[in-house]
Amino acid sequence: MQLSKQQKAWAYYDVGNSSYQLVIVTAIFPIYYAAVCPENISLFGSVWSKASFYLMLFSMSYLFVGIVNPLLSGIADFSMARKKFMIGFTITGIIGTIVLCLFDSDHLEIGFVGTFLSTVGYSGSMVFYNAYLPEIAKEEDQDLLSAKGYAWGYLSSMILLVIALIPFVFGLLDSELASKLTFLLVSIWWAFFSFYSISRLPKDSLSIKSNKNRIVGGYIELFSAMKKVYSQKRLSLFLASFFFYMMGVQTVFYAATLFGKQELKLDDNLLIVTMLLIQLLGAIGANVLSKLARHKGNFIALSITIVIWAGVTVFAYLMQSAVEFIIASIFVGFVMGGIQSLSRSTYSKWTYKLKDKASLFSLLDFTEKIGIVIGTMAFAYFTDLFGSMREAILLLAGFFLVGLILLICSNQLKSAS
Predict the structure, then answer these.
(1) C-beta neighbour count of 269 within 10 angstroms
(2) Does domain 5-200+213-416 have CATH number 3.40.50.300?
């Protein structure tokens, strides 16, 4: 598939925002957070362990986005303002990342605010970004284009992470200052590629509807999109499957590095090198699984990825050494980008003939965000309950199992129709 200039520009947005998700959230920030924060954190009369509060912080961010984004997406479809909302969330995320530069042991609250803003900005922009996929690509090309976005994002983030690691590896700066410079570098990278991409995406059409009815119209458009989706049993089952398996996937994203740091006591350099390996394999896996989907269908490709994810979580429960952590990371890397890109393209293809793309993708985004909130909160609760992240991992295996069963049910409906 030869990408058009507009399709390449769309994929560049993944290049921009992946720098935040993979360089900061997955690699650098968890290690920095573990070094800066005390073992127990008091907030609103409750005492949280370092690990559980970390997950709760992201849970609250995604809960906010999950509540606000559906309304904004409905308004975006009604008033044709997708690009404006996408720009607004992107700016919020970049500002939040810059605020992280002020995060240290004496300014924990600033770090929490920066984390909240950067997470809200990153996740909030994605629903509007994803809504452009069916507009710029034919139905048969969406698997590959979606995979290209993730693959480019992983590869570019790997390059950025290598650059960010130079001060750490060669001891040019102390780890705290080097981490803060990484936060600043990511914000610059994110801004450059994101706004390059946004400037070349299709322009929003002028609204011919009254400005007075935008909020009401937003709700109307949103609920109309929900009715369209839930009237189709196959699509409803897919969303339910997506809800459960993404609870597992996203919780692994946010907990993996902290698990290696706290449970296995792994060296910081080993953790960061492992994250590099994961990103490289993520780019490869996204392309391989997109080709598998093209030849064998999305159901087969998604089912394989979910089974691998479930196996990794069970293996993680038994994990005791650095070698085992690396082995698990190899499998996670291969299916990490694949499950996200396939989920995005599958939903896009199954809603291809429906209108109001921002509201439709808002529903997918809302499903994912609520899944993240429930998954990370449940993981944090069981971590505190058992005093360890290890036992909580088995909960994630259950999420993947339920997701696989629901996906099989959705495929049976397709076969019956």
Answers:
(1) 12
(2) no
